Structure formats: structure tokens, C-alpha cells
Amino acid sequence: SMDKVPFFSIIISTRDRPALFEIALNSVMQQTFADTEFIVVVDGSSNANLLRYDELENRHKKVTFYHLEHRPNGHGQSYTMNYGASKSSGQYLCFLD
Fold first, then answer.
1. DSSP states of 60-74
2. What strands, in cross-sheet order, belong to the sheet with 36-43?
């Protein structure tokens, strides 16, 4: 059923590094364990990078993207990971850093 809780929630935070993020995301998407949800938290980012993140979001329909509002120094790693955790529903959380 659709309300089945995934076993793993894989949470990735990213900010202004779309090229490195894309490598990490592709790596995670190649794993074969199916019972997962993918959560990405984009911690602000410059406008140019936001366009790249939007392209990746459109390409990866199985991934849920959350966009935090822009701040000059971002919200920080712990805030961003905790935000992703609060949006996750898996039995276990995996953080890709």
C-alpha cells in the first residue's frame, strides 16, 4: 500500500555544489535496495545553482526535494539534516554528507 513506511530514509543536504551533489545523488540512486525514500534539502543557494538543482529535481522524480530560504551563510549542516529528518518517514535514517 502507499502508506507503507520505508525501511530507510536517505537524507542529503546540499548548498551551492550542484555538480558534487549530482555525483552523490547518482551514486545513491544506483543502490539496489528498493525499500527507501530519498530526501534532499537544498540549503538556500545562489540563483545560478538553484537552476541546476531544479534541473536535477525534474530529472529525479523518486526524490523529494525541500528548498530552504536563502541566507547569506545558509542554515548549517545540523539544521539542514534535522529538517530532512523531520520530513522523513523511514524506520532508519541514513545521512549522506
1. -TTEEEEEEPP-TT-
2. 63-68, 36-43, 8-14, 92-96
